[in-house]
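RECORD TYPE: protein structure
NAME: Palmitoyltransferase
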Amino acid sequence: MSTKATVMAPRFSMMSGPCKICFKAAKWLPVLFIVTVVVWSYYAYVIQLNLFTVNSIMEKCFYLLVYHILLLLFLWAYWQTIFTDIGRVPKQFRLPPSDLDRYESAETEEGRRAVLEGFTQKQNLPVYNRTMTGDIRYCEKCVQIKPDRCHHCSVCGECVLKLDHHCPWVNNCVAFNNYKFFILFLGYALLYCLFIAATTLQYFIMFWKNQLEVSGKFHILFVFFVSIMFAISLVSLFGYHIFLVIKNRSTLESFRAPIFQVRSTVMQDKDGFSLGAFNNFVEVFGDNRRLWFLPVATSLGDGVTYPQRCVDEDTDDLLGARQRWADDEECELTDGYINNHSHALEEVVVQSNHTNPV
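PREDICTED:
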């Protein structure tokens, strides 16, 4: 293999020793901040408000019951968003040394394009997204073909399946594997803040009128303002991602529409993955309605192939071959998932033929 090809091998962080440890620790600071705010809000709401301020037993029971349900769902979704592994590209998309050497030694764009197209055809890779110039999308840092909707995350240092964005507040990529968890995290965080604000409002008014004579009144005052502040920021972010779910777009795709190649035609279509509002929702939240609002994995698909609005007779083959793209060591775990959801995905595609894409 040429020296040039060796340079283009997967890159890892140049930091080592104390610098690397400090960098990794610093990435957890936003998460630590959120956890600290939640712990303090628990003390302010449960101890100072409910135990020391609220007099009615019925009111206390209602507040504490609803509060702990919302807190549990919020923290569960937050945990899942943080610790769910990012979706990695199957090894079938990586260029072998021989093709990598030919790609790096090619002197023209046409030569490099021919290497990528030949490898894609040989591996029968289901890639329909293209670059602005109509070429197959290739990551030179990871030396692999990018599956549809896959992008390279500079923070994680690798390509991630259906990357939406890298979120510092969860110290993780928001992508195919945890996008449902991220939506639920935003939704339950918003409900958590709104509930605290609504139930502390009357005590804030009492404080304003100098009628609140308890030692922890400033905790109650601050938890009211903090919940309002977070709710204002969350409502816009949550609403935006609900819009993206309904449109079946990622944040990256909303800024730059994906480019498709269908047969010999290359076109840019911002709604290329949209199958209708309901079907788009089902693709993220799954076909089991009882699990829609629980932070458990129910999203349909494998993160590599997706039903497309512009693909008709090719779609069934695309979905039928979905299990090929699991790595060999993951096949046993993946087969059950595929078998459970392939039928639901086919139903989504069939319904999309009778639904005006949005």
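COMMENT: The chain has three domains: 20-87+170-232, 91-146, 257-352.
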